[in-house]
Amino acid sequence: MRLITPSEFRPVVRIANRHAVSSGQVWGPRTIPDLQFICPLRGSFFLRQGAEEWVARPGQVLTILPDVAHSIGLVPGSGSGEMSGMHLELIPGVQWAAGEYRCDPLPPTVSTPADGAEIQAAFTRAAQAHASYGRLRDALLSTIAGEALLRLASSWAARATPRASSKVSGMVAHIRLHAVAGVDRHELARVFDLTPEHVNALFRRELGLTPRDVLNHERCRLAYRLIHDEGLPIATAALRAGYQDTFYFSRVFKQIYSMPPSHAR
Questions:
Q1: What pTM value is reported for the model?
Q2: 189 and 212 share a domain?
Q3: Total structural domains within the chain
């Protein structure tokens, strides 16, 4: 399993399109073989996966993972709409669906970038390039898609490490410094002169995470480097990252990276 960062994106675009959508029009339930990004241009669109549902509006982007059953369409009552989409792999020669790569940070189901208008324009240009002909068509399409994805990835990174108050930033730094030894909300409360309940409330409000979530992210990031870069056995990497229970570590790692630690090699 290869883990890539946005700086390595070299998109291979299978389909890029733009089309009007009529009221009540729904795709699915269906699955797709590659990553799909959908950019609403006009109207609000829903994405339904099992019992969960998300809504994206113009300026936002939906991410649909391969082999995940889903339905997508205009939100009822929103009238007609328009969207632009791309089916692609983030790098050549490998497939997300086959478990051959993942990206860090992972794209959320709904991205809300600061430069939504620029991303809409890039999606539209990608659709135009896909409909064109010429020797450099594929390279042009990859370049345009790469621009859109890099702009999107900036919002993913901001989501992974959001701007926080100095108090929360200090607590995150403390967790990072003492991740292997372990830090809980009670220690953070003592060090930063807060109550444990206030610590949790601050993390939830500013990061959408708990202190335990941040601790697990820091530990799993270390474990990934130990497994991938240094070739350590999973049990050894887990122990060095602060996990005494290898099975618990594997479960947490899979939740964070959407793959088992054995695929990090």
A1: 0.66
A2: yes
A3: 2
